[in-house]
Amino acid sequence: MSRMPVILGFVARINGVDHPAAIFKFSGRKAYWWSWLEPSNGNLVYTDLLCGTTRIFNGVREFHGSYKSDGHRHRRIGTARVGVRRDTPITDIQSWKSLRSITVPLTEPFPWEMQAKPWSAVECPHILRSEDFDDADGVDLHAYICKSARVGDLICRWRVANRWWVGGDQDLRLVVLAEPKFPPH
Length: 185
Known about the structure:
Blueprint: E1 6-14, E2 17-26, E3 31-35, E4 42-48, E5 53-60, E6 63-67, E7 72-77, E8 80-86, E9 96-105, E10 126-128, E11 138-147, H1 151-157, E12 163-167, E13 172-181
Parallel strand pairs: 1-10
Antiparallel strand pairs: 1-2, 2-3, 3-6, 4-5, 6-7, 7-8, 9-11, 11-13, 12-13
């Protein structure tokens, strides 16, 4: 039986303007993420610290990451796969596994806009506002694939996260936790 994927989309509302910030998608077998952090129409320098290599990508139009059912993880910049590694197969997750953390500013307009193709699938994005996070400068969105019975444990472990979203109705869920970021004192 095929299920519809869970899609959690987030926008930062700054000065009345909604800036698409992040998309997390989970089908039960595969997970993906897209972020505003990488310019969708600019240049990107990618450094792989594990391999000690650096690559320069010009005119980046697509950047996303994935976590496949067999545990294969990678990022894709245009047609190039980077950061390839193996992790726990999704069906073998016993508690939770990190998908990706994305920092979202909440006080300054974005220097560029995310133009990821899957944004059109986000029907009702979650709106992030500084005032909803005690006037934080930004939030870190931490996305996890989590066993449904362990969602409460994951939320309790992240005591600094004051908001969270859970998607899906299967044994494995998509969980996104929001950790406010404040300027150093």
